[in-house]
Amino acid sequence: MAASAQSRPQQGPGRPKDMEKRAAILAAAKALFIRNAFAGTSMDAIAADAGVSKLTVYSHYGDKDNLFREVIRSRIQDLLPEETYFFDAQVDIKETLLRVALTHAHLDCNAETVGTFRAILSDCRQGNPRYGKLIWEEGATRTHGLMERLLQQAVDADQLEIEDVPRASGQFLALIKGNLMMRQMFGCADCPESYAEEIEATARAGVTMFLRAYRPR
Fold this sequence. Notes:
By secondary structure, the chain is an all-alpha fold. About 70% of the residues lie in helices and about 0% in strands. It has helices spanning about 1-5, 15-35, 45-50, 55-60, 65-80, 95-110, 110-125, 130-155, 165-175, 180-185, 190-215.
């Protein structure tokens, strides 16, 4: 008996089934929310796409609002990880800001991100402003907080002179995007090649202008 037990192959470490289901639910919800907006996405549809029961969806995420929040949080953390805003006092602040600027500019102007914002606006127009509030809390509020931290670290290291760091954070994020995201939202972007070039040029110009205002004299 002991020999039989010893000869039986050991089961290697693997992902628990419930975690696999949770990941499948989140992936299905991401795709459906972007495609159909919040109001047009049902928990039944999410369950079907994830290959689980609706009861399983509720057991993992509680309700549709909580699932939507997790979708936004996961999406933002995937695309804008905290490392994006890492500050190194040994690196010139221009290089650091350019890294952040180019990451943001390309992200905020890509088709999937624009589709997400269109979905949110669609829900807001249908009288569901709380969903816009959710994406603001999980997306913009987190981003501004991380950007404020980076700028404050640069101030403390004497690389920048800023009196109002929260306001400067908003100015920076506005400068590096210009009106490009709005053009995408309204379907007015040029061909992909020229548009990509303009995204990068706008981000670089925004960093230059920001440094003219806040680099120590």
